């Protein structure tokens, strides 16, 4: 019992820390760092979704449209409802960025069966994306949070629940074009879907469809890696990986690269 209480206390402290950090980030407009300012000004000026993509037929796989639909829709709704203050729109944008991360984790906490289950999404949110927390406009946070929610729904959700099915579809939909890390997460989710299809009494077509969806997302992520919006990103990534393997004595980084 004492171990469980310690685990619950740790998770509670971690959750409070994340919520407080979100409040500080939104109140200080941290989300406007870097690309965030461009997104907000573009949304306010054009009154439509802000994309970097100029040629959709040839660059659609670089669009990350799923992330934009999730994080920019609240701002656009506010604009069309008559909110024109940049300060107010900035707060709405910041809240939408953080809620898109926190709500899927809350789903995991509701579905988990033990403190150990809860530990993984919490660590994934805090430690897994900590290095990018000051640049929350990055879509990697959204992918990581949605990944854990979908995984928990597949593993622990009630197969007879209509709400579970709707959540699985709603969370999976934007991941088709969201971020390059879907190359990794998409394959895992597809394999879990196929395993659930093999063992589940009902819902076979749903699992098969979801598996195909996530595999396509992984393929589009691979295309975005091979042909990025900015070629210097690919060059820098490859140079860093090769450098870590050949010129670095960081054993942990080298083992991680080899395992990946």
What would you say about this model in short?
By secondary structure, this protein is mainly α. The chain is 73% helix and 0% strand.
Can you count the helices? Answer: 12
Instruction: Report low-confidence residues grouped into runs of 5 or more.
Output: none
Report the average pLDDT across residues.
83
Which oligomeric state applies?
single chain
Q: Percent of residues in beta strands?
A: under 5%
Helix content: over 70%
Series of secondary-structure elements, N-terminal to C-terminal:
HHHHHHHHHHHH
Estimate the global geometry from the Cα principal axes. Answer: globular
Distance between the termini: 37 Å
Extended strand count: 0
Largest β-sheet summary: none
Q: Helices and strands: which structural class? A: mainly alpha
CA radius of gyration is: 19 Å
Descriptive account of the structure:
The structure is a single chain. With 260 residues, this protein is mainly α. The chain is 73% helix and 0% strand. It has twelve helices and no strands. It has helices at 2-27, 35-46, 56-59, 65-80, 86-111, 115-126, 140-156, 162-172, 182-199, 204-226, 231-246, 251-259. The protein is globular.
